[in-house]
Design brief:
Layout lengths: L1 H56 L1 H15 L2 H28 L1 H4 L6 H10 L3 H16 L3 H25 L6 H26 L11 H35 L4 H19 L2 H21 L3 H38 L2 H9 L4 H16 L3 H21 L1 H4 L2 H26 L5 H26 L4 H22 L5 H23 L1
Helix pairs in contact: 1-3, 1-5, 1-6, 1-7, 1-8, 1-9, 1-10, 1-11, 2-3, 2-6, 2-9, 2-11, 3-6, 3-9, 5-8, 6-8, 7-8, 9-10, 9-15, 10-13, 11-12, 11-14, 12-13, 12-14, 12-18, 12-19, 14-17, 15-17, 18-19
């Protein structure tokens, strides 16, 4: 368990830094492209994500689980055959899709209401096969618990995308449109991460072997996950078309409708996904271990891992919620110069809870061979979300999309928890839930009170910073009081490291 936490900590540090860079880049794009340009960029990425999902989305987690199964049996040949089978399956889908899309470009481009979206999409589609194979190699690292390599390559991809994007947007003023430059940066990052992953795979002795005996099982196991994630991508693509259309029907202009979509998906959703960095890191580390325990039929260990995962996820969400409730409105103004995005962030703070539960439970259930069940749960939640987007824009405007997301996450979280309870027999103790509530509720109340007070005598930036600082201190003290952390032990470790460094320097001088 100690190694598990240490690996999770390493992955989390990389994931948080990657998420921070991506978030920073999103802010840069929002300012350089504007809300309309950001909406166009998001639509193209959303449609591209559909084909990327079809090509490879279910394969990494399936390959990781299969590799864990072979590791439990000590079969190196099985691991190599499974990896080869997954790569072939990814190419079997991605190469024909790319060729067909270019052959029928004129016909396919008509699905975009704005021709600029089509230009962006066809820049991205060049990287489909490369990033699909990279996803498989990432699944190989995942299954073999090479979390450092997994995290470093992901971080390098993000850094390359940002560096190329900023260079093209600020350094080259002529030629391509700005939105096209942003798409080129994404393509370059895909190609570079593929090349780095392949080289590292070969250096570390990765080999391919005949996929005989592994091709069909992996294809069969990955299809439900692929179907679920493809449905998610299709739903996002459908919403990117339907939501602006329904806003226009409600009286918005075309430009206003695209801007509203850009605010929700380009500004609000990325901030709401903040817990994803932490929870995704937890899932990356936990899934291979949980899969091994599940296939070895270590029921008690499976229950302990699930209980730890749910408790940690709830704690992460409840630590972040007070910041969103108290400072969400000001954060939206500060980051995006958009007051509406800030109001949405504040109003959606509690959505972090079901959203976080959905993230972790889906990964846990898929590692326990429940891909079909998670697919049906997803479809149920998505149907409710689509109904909200279709019927409510006339009454709620952009709030219809946020309400749909909230309903989707709540339904998925509840159904997933019920299924997980049946599989693992454990979820999270009432005592743990009570301790988490004792951290979140007082912190949120303090944050709202302090923000109201500070805003009467300070500018919004100073008020926001001070409020966040006080909320953070309050949460640390409450975490200590509720025995989630040991401040004394942490202080001892910090001071011991400081003294060690000083003693080393003294020895070096002497």
């Amino acid at each position: 368990m100690h190694n598990l936490y240490r690996s999770a900590a390493v992955v989390t540090v990389f994931a948080v830094f990657e998420h921070f860079l991506g978030f920073l880049y999103r802010i840069i794009l929002s300012r350089l492209l504007g809300s309309e340009g950001l909406g166009i960029y998001q639509v193209a990425l959303t449609v591209f994500a559909v084909f990327l999902t079809i090509s490879s989305s279910g394969l990494p987690i399936t390959l990781s689980r299969v590799i864990s199964k072979h590791r439990a049996k000590g079969s190196l040949k099985g691991e190599q055959s499974a990896t080869t089978a997954a790569i072939l399956i990814a190419l079997m889908f991605s190469v024909p899709i790319t060729l067909l899309l270019f052959l029928f470009r004129a016909q396919f481009s008509t699905i975009f209401s704005d021709p600029r979206c089509a230009d962006l999409f066809y820049i991205l589609i060049f990287g489909l096969s490369f990033t699909s194979v990279y996803a498989i190699i990432r699944g190989f690292f995942w299954g073999n618990k090479r979390f450092f390599a997994y995290s470093v390559i992901e971080l390098i991809e993000e850094i390359i995308k940002i560096a190329v994007g900023v260079f093209l947007l600020l350094g080259i003023t002529a030629g391509f449109a700005d939105v096209n430059k942003a798409a080129i940066a994404v393509l370059v990052s895909y190609l570079c991460s593929f090349a780095i992953a392949v080289v590292y795979f070969i250096i570390k002795g990765g080999k391919l072997r005949s996929p005989k005996g592994e091709f069909l099982p992996i294809l069969k196991s990955s299809l439900p996950v692929t179907a679920m994630r493809t449905s998610s991508s299709l739903l996002n693509s459908l919403i990117s078309v339907v939501f602006p259309m329904r806003l226009i029907a409600a009286g918005f202009s075309a430009s206003q409708a695209m801007s509203e979509y850009g605010v929700v998906y380009g500004m609000v959703v990325p901030v709401l996904m903040t817990p994803g960095s932490f929870i995704g890191s937890l899932a990356v580390v936990l899934v291979p271990t949980l899969a091994e325990c599940y296939y070895r039929k270590q029921t008690d260990e499976v229950g302990k891992l699930v209980e730890k995962a749910i408790g940690t996820t709830l704690l992460i969400a409840c630590i972040l919620i007070p910041f969103f409730i108290s400072c969400g409105e000001n954060v939206g103004i500060f980051l995006f110069s958009n007051a509406e995005s800030g109001k949405m962030l504040r109003n959606c703070a509690l959505v972090l809870l079901p959203m976080s539960i959905t993230m972790i439970t889906t990964s846990l259930l898929n590692s326990m061979h429940c891909e079909r069940q998670t697919l049906f749960i997803f479809l149920f939640g998505s149907a409710v979300m689509l109904l909200c987007v279709w019927f409510l824009p006339a009454y709620l405007g952009s709030g219809a999309l946020l309400l749909g997301m909230a309903c989707d996450f709540c339904i998925t979280a509840v159904c997933s928890l019920i299924l997980l309870k049946k599989k693992a027999k454990k979820l999270c103790s009432f005592k743990t839930l009570l301790r988490i509530a004792l951290v979140a509720v007082p912190s949120a109340a303090l944050g709202v009170g302090l923000k109201t007070l500070f805003m009467t005598c300070l500018d919004y930036i100073s008020a926001t910073v001070l409020t966040m600082l006080f909320v953070a201190v309050c949460e640390v003290l409450l975490l200590w009081a509720c025995k989630f952390i040991d401040l004394r032990q942490i202080c001892k470790q910090i001071f011991s490291r400081i003294f060690r460094k000083k003693s080393k320097k003294a020895r070096a001088r002497s």
